[in-house]
Amino acid sequence: MRRSLIAVPVLALASLALVACGDDDKSSGGGGVRAATAVEGDAFCTAAAAADVAGDSTSVAIDAGDPTGIKSAVDAAVAAAQAAQKLAPTDIAATVDNVVKVQLDIRDLFASNDYDLAAVAQDPAFAEMQADASVDETATELDTYLEDKCGIVAD
User: Fold this and answer.
1) How many Å apart are CA 19 and CA 109, to the nearest integer?
2) pLDDT digits over 141-150, tens only?
3) From the centroid of its chain, how far is CA 95?
4) What's the predicted TM-score (pTM) here?
Protein backbone atom coordinates (compact mmCIF):
# COMPACT_ATOMS: atom_id res chain seq x y z
CA MET A 1 0.00 0.00 0.00
CA ARG A 2 2.34 2.58 -1.26
CA ARG A 3 2.20 5.60 -3.45
CA SER A 4 1.33 3.66 -6.58
CA LEU A 5 -2.45 3.85 -6.26
CA ILE A 6 -2.81 6.47 -8.90
CA ALA A 7 0.56 7.09 -10.44
CA VAL A 8 0.24 9.00 -13.67
CA PRO A 9 3.80 9.80 -14.65
CA VAL A 10 2.73 11.49 -17.87
CA LEU A 11 0.65 13.98 -15.90
CA ALA A 12 2.96 14.25 -12.91
CA LEU A 13 0.34 12.68 -10.67
CA ALA A 14 3.05 10.63 -9.00
CA SER A 15 2.97 12.93 -5.99
CA LEU A 16 -0.61 11.80 -5.45
CA ALA A 17 0.03 8.13 -6.05
CA LEU A 18 -0.99 6.60 -2.78
CA VAL A 19 -2.08 3.20 -1.73
CA ALA A 20 -3.68 2.95 1.65
CA CYS A 21 -3.69 0.42 4.41
CA GLY A 22 -5.90 -0.53 7.31
CA ASP A 23 -6.21 -1.58 10.97
CA ASP A 24 -5.49 -4.84 12.73
CA ASP A 25 -8.64 -5.99 14.50
CA LYS A 26 -7.71 -8.98 16.64
CA SER A 27 -11.27 -9.96 17.53
CA SER A 28 -13.35 -12.41 15.58
CA GLY A 29 -16.34 -10.09 15.47
CA GLY A 30 -14.65 -7.12 13.86
CA GLY A 31 -15.28 -4.79 16.78
CA GLY A 32 -12.32 -5.68 18.95
CA VAL A 33 -9.20 -3.88 19.97
CA ARG A 34 -6.75 -2.93 17.26
CA ALA A 35 -3.19 -4.16 17.47
CA ALA A 36 -0.63 -1.62 18.59
CA THR A 37 1.60 -2.20 15.58
CA ALA A 38 1.83 -4.34 12.46
CA VAL A 39 3.93 -7.47 12.18
CA GLU A 40 5.03 -8.95 8.88
CA GLY A 41 2.51 -11.58 7.79
CA ASP A 42 -0.38 -10.33 9.94
CA ALA A 43 -3.79 -9.46 8.53
CA PHE A 44 -2.93 -5.80 8.08
CA CYS A 45 0.33 -6.47 6.24
CA THR A 46 -1.39 -9.03 4.03
CA ALA A 47 -4.15 -6.56 3.17
CA ALA A 48 -1.58 -3.79 2.63
CA ALA A 49 0.29 -6.02 0.18
CA ALA A 50 -2.95 -6.69 -1.72
CA ALA A 51 -3.66 -2.96 -1.87
CA ASP A 52 -0.12 -2.40 -3.12
CA VAL A 53 -0.72 -4.81 -6.01
CA ALA A 54 -4.03 -3.09 -6.78
CA GLY A 55 -2.23 0.25 -6.84
CA ASP A 56 0.32 -1.09 -9.29
CA SER A 57 -2.55 -2.23 -11.53
CA THR A 58 -3.92 1.29 -11.45
CA SER A 59 -0.61 2.65 -12.67
CA VAL A 60 -0.68 0.19 -15.59
CA ALA A 61 -4.24 1.20 -16.48
CA ILE A 62 -3.38 4.88 -16.36
CA ASP A 63 -0.34 4.31 -18.56
CA ALA A 64 -2.66 2.60 -21.08
CA GLY A 65 -4.97 5.65 -20.99
CA ASP A 66 -8.25 3.77 -21.41
CA PRO A 67 -10.96 5.48 -19.31
CA THR A 68 -12.87 2.22 -18.72
CA GLY A 69 -9.71 0.45 -17.56
CA ILE A 70 -8.74 3.40 -15.38
CA LYS A 71 -12.14 3.45 -13.68
CA SER A 72 -12.04 -0.26 -13.01
CA ALA A 73 -8.49 -0.16 -11.66
CA VAL A 74 -9.05 2.93 -9.50
CA ASP A 75 -12.23 1.45 -8.02
CA ALA A 76 -10.43 -1.83 -7.25
CA ALA A 77 -7.46 -0.02 -5.69
CA VAL A 78 -9.69 2.12 -3.47
CA ALA A 79 -11.67 -0.96 -2.39
CA ALA A 80 -8.45 -2.80 -1.52
CA ALA A 81 -7.19 0.19 0.44
CA GLN A 82 -10.45 0.46 2.36
CA ALA A 83 -10.35 -3.24 3.15
CA ALA A 84 -6.86 -2.83 4.56
CA GLN A 85 -7.91 0.33 6.39
CA LYS A 86 -10.22 -1.77 8.52
CA LEU A 87 -7.17 -3.63 9.81
CA ALA A 88 -4.79 -0.72 10.53
CA PRO A 89 -2.98 -0.94 13.87
CA THR A 90 -3.33 2.02 16.21
CA ASP A 91 0.17 3.31 15.51
CA ILE A 92 -0.59 3.94 11.82
CA ALA A 93 -4.40 4.21 11.76
CA ALA A 94 -4.54 8.01 11.46
CA THR A 95 -2.03 7.98 8.60
CA VAL A 96 -3.97 5.25 6.82
CA ASP A 97 -7.20 7.19 7.26
CA ASN A 98 -5.55 10.23 5.67
CA VAL A 99 -4.23 8.17 2.77
CA VAL A 100 -7.64 6.64 2.11
CA LYS A 101 -9.21 10.11 2.18
CA VAL A 102 -6.75 11.28 -0.46
CA GLN A 103 -7.46 8.17 -2.53
CA LEU A 104 -11.17 8.91 -2.40
CA ASP A 105 -10.49 12.50 -3.45
CA ILE A 106 -8.38 11.24 -6.36
CA ARG A 107 -11.10 8.78 -7.36
CA ASP A 108 -13.64 11.62 -7.28
CA LEU A 109 -11.32 13.81 -9.36
CA PHE A 110 -11.04 11.11 -12.00
CA ALA A 111 -14.79 10.44 -11.94
CA SER A 112 -15.69 14.10 -12.30
CA ASN A 113 -13.46 14.23 -15.38
CA ASP A 114 -14.81 11.01 -16.92
CA TYR A 115 -11.43 9.32 -16.33
CA ASP A 116 -9.92 11.52 -19.05
CA LEU A 117 -6.26 12.13 -18.16
CA ALA A 118 -6.03 15.43 -20.04
CA ALA A 119 -9.12 16.74 -18.26
CA VAL A 120 -7.75 15.61 -14.88
CA ALA A 121 -4.51 17.47 -15.57
CA GLN A 122 -6.44 20.67 -16.29
CA ASP A 123 -8.72 20.43 -13.26
CA PRO A 124 -7.91 23.05 -10.57
CA ALA A 125 -8.48 20.38 -7.91
CA PHE A 126 -5.55 18.46 -9.39
CA ALA A 127 -3.28 21.47 -8.98
CA GLU A 128 -4.42 21.85 -5.37
CA MET A 129 -3.63 18.20 -4.65
CA GLN A 130 -0.19 18.54 -6.20
CA ALA A 131 0.53 21.63 -4.13
CA ASP A 132 -0.44 19.94 -0.86
CA ALA A 133 2.87 18.93 0.74
CA SER A 134 1.05 16.93 3.40
CA VAL A 135 0.08 14.36 0.75
CA ASP A 136 3.72 13.52 0.07
CA GLU A 137 4.59 13.56 3.78
CA THR A 138 1.76 11.15 4.56
CA ALA A 139 2.78 8.86 1.71
CA THR A 140 6.38 8.84 2.91
CA GLU A 141 5.27 8.04 6.46
CA LEU A 142 3.18 5.15 5.20
CA ASP A 143 5.93 3.88 2.89
CA THR A 144 8.40 3.84 5.78
CA TYR A 145 5.97 2.06 8.10
CA LEU A 146 5.08 -0.59 5.53
CA GLU A 147 8.72 -1.29 4.80
CA ASP A 148 9.72 -1.41 8.47
CA LYS A 149 6.76 -3.39 9.80
CA CYS A 150 5.47 -5.39 6.83
CA GLY A 151 8.47 -5.77 4.54
CA ILE A 152 6.61 -4.00 1.71
CA VAL A 153 9.19 -1.98 -0.19
CA ALA A 154 8.02 1.06 -2.17
CA ASP A 155 8.82 1.05 -5.88
Assistant:
1) 16
2) 999 999 999 9
3) 11
4) 0.78
